[in-house]
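Q: Structure for this?
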Amino acid sequence: MVQIVVALIIGIAVGYFGLLPENLLAHVDILISWTLSLLLFAVGVGLGMDKDGVKALTNLGPKVLLLPLGVAVGSLVASALTGLVFGQTWNEGAAVGAGFGWYSLSGILITNLHSTRLGTLSFLTNVLREVIGILILPWVYHYFGDMACVAPAGATAMDVSLPVIIEVAGEEIGLVAFASGFVLTLIVPVLVPLLLR
Amino acid sequence: MIQVILALGIGVLAGYFNLFKSAGRYIAGPVSTAGVVLLLFFMGAKIGADREIMNNLGIMGLEALVYAVTAIMGSLLMVWAWQFLEQRKTEGQKEGEGV
């Protein structure tokens, strides 16, 4: 998180004061495309090697897929509607919500595939989703029960939010939360390009 | 665009079949962190160079807040509904057993 914020702020300063050399600026989009592919390859290697994730999915059975599916559909429909209210198209809105809290990827992915404006919006949205998702967990647990604690965290249920979910909703929910975050993490890079096609 | 999905898919397969052995951890760790840092720097540069975005960051933050809250509510609602239906189904089964 710290490196990300520092890199972003330095980047903003460099862009704002026009410090990036002209010839580099012209190739920034191609650089982003290639770095993105490299990053997704690296992320894929990590997910593929993560035998816990694969094991969690096979142990819990196909029914557990319904949970991340519900989280995905709920997020997408809600943000598509929000998009329409804000004068965006439904698929632009849905793409913003399709980050499921994975701000570092969804922001740059949308910047690359659509526009810097929508990418920035997606970055901010998903940072806020992660933070709010953690803050409201005790309330969610109280009113909606333990399974629902997996929903606000979205893709971050497999890493950043996992310890908090376990603390609030109990050890038993840990595996389900991890599996849900794992599935959502896998579908972010697939869903965002499909929505912005 | 398809490039992104392919890169992820190939990565997952390479990781799953352990093609990189111990180097895999290095690729998933430091290499992907370096990628994220580089990308966020570029994204920052694009944001900084865009006067319209820079002037509207406050409003975009509010818009993002609405997006984040509605997305969370939507996902909560779906999971809650799913839980509710599951519960009714198991209760229905219990009643069935009783008869």
